[in-house]
Write a sequence for this structure.
């Protein structure tokens, strides 16, 4: 954040967001996730924050820091523990402290500096710059397949078999007195005739004793009775 000024002006700082308000600004995220996104943005220098005042504890000696809305440096955000920080009271109080190791002035190792930041606020422009999810296109409706109505699957040869039964009725070879006559015809003579498909190939899926109940033998019997006008067919 070398191009960011070290202080925010008083008027500018007054319009910045308290931590809980910055979180609320990211309403598309859960609160915990929003906190993590803000912290990551601050660590990478894309989210800008400033503190109303700062104090330091250097090797146990307190020192007053800036009191003019100084920008919180990236190193402060980098040195906080992520999992602890997003659960901390910072998001309600706006204050936090962090330890940093710096080189001793005399070159004899390092010194621990504890920096405390009070009244931290976030630049709303940088919060609003955090990418939001874009609306996903709705998938095209998928054509549905009619539900299976159950029952025996329709056999490929049943139409041909039914035509043969009708032919025998027409030429007089089959004169059914009741619905059982259709069943006997299918199981005997007609059934044996249709051991070949209409293409002339063997069809092992047709056991001779199978009863195709979908033929509605009883309706066929009524349709061929003397004086019957047949079954009415509704065409749509």
């Amino acid at each position: 954040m070398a191009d960011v000024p070290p202080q925010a002006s008083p008027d500018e700082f007054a319009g910045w967001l308290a931590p809980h308000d910055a979180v609320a600004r990211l309403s598309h995220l859960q609160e915990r996730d929003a906190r993590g996104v803000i912290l990551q943005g601050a660590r990478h220098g894309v989210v800008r924050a400033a503190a109303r005042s700062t104090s330091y504890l250097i090797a146990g000696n307190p020192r007053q820091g800036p009191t003019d809305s100084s920008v919180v440096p990236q190193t402060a955000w980098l040195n906080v523990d992520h999992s602890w920080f997003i659960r901390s009271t910072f998001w309600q109080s706006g204050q936090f402290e962090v330890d940093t190791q710096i080189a001793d002035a005399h070159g004899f190792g390092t010194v621990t500096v504890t920096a405390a930041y009070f009244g931290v606020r976030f630049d709303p422009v940088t919060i609003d710059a955090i990418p939001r999810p874009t609306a996903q296109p709705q998938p095209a409706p998928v054509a549905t397949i009619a539900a299976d109505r159950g029952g025996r699957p329709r056999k490929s040869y049943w139409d041909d078999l039914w035509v043969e039964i009708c032919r025998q009725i027409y030429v007089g070879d089959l004169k059914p007195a009741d619905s059982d006559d259709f069943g006997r015809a299918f199981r005997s003579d007609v059934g044996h005739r249709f051991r070949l498909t209409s293409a002339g190939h063997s069809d092992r899926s047709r056991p001779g004793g199978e009863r195709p109940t979908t033929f509605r033998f009883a309706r066929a019997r009524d349709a061929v009775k003397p004086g019957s006008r047949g079954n009415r067919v509704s065409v749509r």
